[in-house]
Amino acid sequence: MISIVIPSLNKLPYTRRCLDSLLLTTGAEFEFVIVDNGSTDGTAEYLLDFRRRTAAAGIPTTVLFNDRNVGACTARNQAIGLCRGSEIAFLDNDIVLRDRRWLAVLREALYSDDRIAMVTPKLLFPFPPYNIEHVGIAISPNGRVGYPGRNAPKDDPAYSTRCELQGSASACILVKRAVLDEVGGFDEVYNPVQFEDLDLEYRMKACGYILVYEPAVEMYHFENVTTDNTPGLNFKYQTVKNLLEFKRRYQAVFSQEGGPADETLAWEELPKRRIEEIGELEVRD
Question: How far apart are CA 254 and CA 272, in angstroms?
């Protein structure tokens, strides 16, 4: 069994579309472990109904309700303690399924080499022309973070080959449970969010594991929805604060990894689409 972990905090339209789309998954046995961080917009009621529906469909679903926002790191760690799977898929609640066999294909890639601890798919913007949002994360020798493939065509040959990564955002990743047990979960010093995924991945790499991008799987991702307008979250401050902590811990590592130069990692601001503007999305078998 594979455990699918999803934290939620409001953003009900996205959570609904995410979870309902994941019910189209085929080719793998899975369970849901959902942790809600004090939603007040009807998400709790939806999750209770979702649990009833999945139970009727024979899909185990655990929902944990926190009475406040305990942070993404803590919520995911809570979920890990409830997971029964030998692999854990961590998803943000703004992911939407594109490939029905996403779990099966990612799991096959995960076990293609004993050194692999984590795999991530190709993430696409959920609107025409469905360009790439990003394929993993690149880090310059100075610690600047960038998103390879951003806004490239989804079939760009440069992003069509399985490869090793420096890191990956945790919007959609599949991880071996045994590796999590070895290196530990998400460090809660990064609460509520930002750089907790890279910190976990660099601990994996310190133990000799590698991180892999699998282009055979594509998933849709609504960019920056999870943290947008979260009450009490100063996102820019949190990003800088946690980046400094990440650099303090791993500067000696990423400075020697041969990552791209700073100037190649400039952020490109792109138009966004609200979920209300998104119609039916292609689902591939």
Answer: 31
**How many Å apart are CA 112 and CA 184, to the nearest integer?**
23
Burial 158-193 (b: 16+ CB within 10 A, else e): ebeeeeebbbbbbbbbbbbbebbeebebbbeebbbb
Q: What residue type is 127 in one-letter code?
A: F
CA 57 – CA 155 distance, rounded (Å): 35
What is the model's pLDDT at position 231?
Answer: 63
Q: Which residues pair with 124 in a beta bridge?
A: 132, 220
What is the total residue count of the chain? 285
Distance, in Å, from the CA atom of 180 to the CA atom of 15, rounded to the nearest integer, reads: 25
Q: What is the pLDDT of residue 225?
A: 79
Question: Do the beta carbons of residue 252 and residue 140 sit within 8 Å?
Answer: no
Whether the Cβ atoms of residue 14 and residue 229 lie closer than 8 Å to each other: no
Please state the pTM of the whole predicted model: 0.95
Peptide bond into 129 cis (omega under 30): yes
Helix boundaries (H) for 23-119: 43-56, 72-82, 102-110
Tell me how far CA of residue 272 lies from CA of 127, 194, 248, in angstroms.
Answer: 9, 21, 33
pLDDT score of 217 more than 70:
yes
Report the SS3 class of residue 189.
helix
Let me know: does 25 contact 100? Beta carbons within 8 Å: yes
How far apart are the C-alpha atoms of 252 and 206, rounded to whole Å?
A: 12
Domains of the chain and any CATH numbers: 2-277 (3.90.550.10)
Give the integer Cα–Cα distance in Å for 267 and 270.
9
**Residue pair 56/50 in contact by the 8 Å Cβ criterion:** no
Contact 218, 98 (CB under 8 A): yes
Say if residue 229's pLDDT is above 60. no
pLDDT for 142 beyond 80? yes
**Which value, in Å, is the radius of gyration of the alpha carbons in the chain?**
18
Mean pLDDT for 35-45 is: 97
